[in-house]
Amino acid sequence: MHPLSDPESDPASHTGAVGPGAPRHPVRSLLTLATLTGGLTELALVGAHALIYPLGTRTERLRPDPRCRPGEQPPAVRALFAADPLAARVPVVLVHGLIDNHSVFAVMRRSLRRRGFTSVCSWNYSPLLADVARGAADLGAHLERVCEQTGHERVHVVGHSLGGLLARYHVQRQGGDRHVESLVTLGTPHQGSVLAHLLPTPLVRQLRPGSAVLQELAEPAPGIRTPVTAIYSDLDQVVLPTSAGRCDHPDLQARNVLVRGIGHMSLPFHRTVLDEVAATLAGRRRPQIAAPARAAVA
Questions:
Q1: Do strands 295-296 and 92-95 pair parallel, antiparallel, or not at all (unpaired)?
Q2: Residue 57 backbone dihedrals phi, psi, to 5 degrees
Q3: Mind giving me the DSSP string for 272-290?
Q4: 3-55, pLDDT tens digit by residue?
Q5: Between the CA of residue 287 and those of 67, 144, 164, 218, what are the distances in Å?
Q6: What is the pLDDT of residues 213-232, one digit of tens each?
Q7: For domain 7-13+27-53+74-285, is the CATH number 1.10.3720.10?
């Protein structure tokens, strides 16, 4: 499956309040060609993902590739890591969302490896998970195992949907910033989702706006060392309102990146998102302290 791209979905990043880069008005956004294309793409990807879902039920083993050396890589790969060649060696752990498994990262995993990242793996948590804090602690234990296996003290984490919230909770509330170099979230309900009111399970109740878990994450968190990049879309059908996919916390080094016309399940497959994730993990994107409301992303 090839990554998808759309010229109208180029991202915009901003760290301040919602401004010109905010999602469009919900009614007007439904009338654009990009939205129609994104909706059809989302339907196609949901169907394709349903077919490959059984392939992701087993936890993936981390297999570092010692053959990948910066000097032996194509020019585009070397350019990505020009500022920090050692960034390619930092392990990357991908964490899926609710009712899913690591098959959702089939394209992203391959893309990151082709771009020069030598240690990329996915982590499956239990489909019976009923508590964000418990899932975050399990993730922390897995990250420690990855550090022991690779010899690295810190790792990158990319989380889709609920996976991003588990990772943020671990970083912010369980001391995870000691071993998480950077966190990138894709379509994560940082401020909850009104759709969580439709399913009264213990875990989904924690995703409602104003839940006890989200109130915990809103509490002061001084000294957190892990920068957070939250990629969210104006066409997200799961995180509603779509602006709830922003990570806004005064104590976090947070950077919010808005992409347009990309559905919730399409985020881990889309070329625009893949480019942004790779550039962020390579250290080419940095949260801006006291940035203007909107700044273009190169």
A1: unpaired
A2: -75, -25
A3: HHHHHHHHHHTT---PPTT
A4: 554 444 556 655 544 444 455 555 555 566 666 666 676 676 666 656 555 65
A5: 32, 25, 17, 19
A6: 999 999 999 999 999 999 99
A7: no
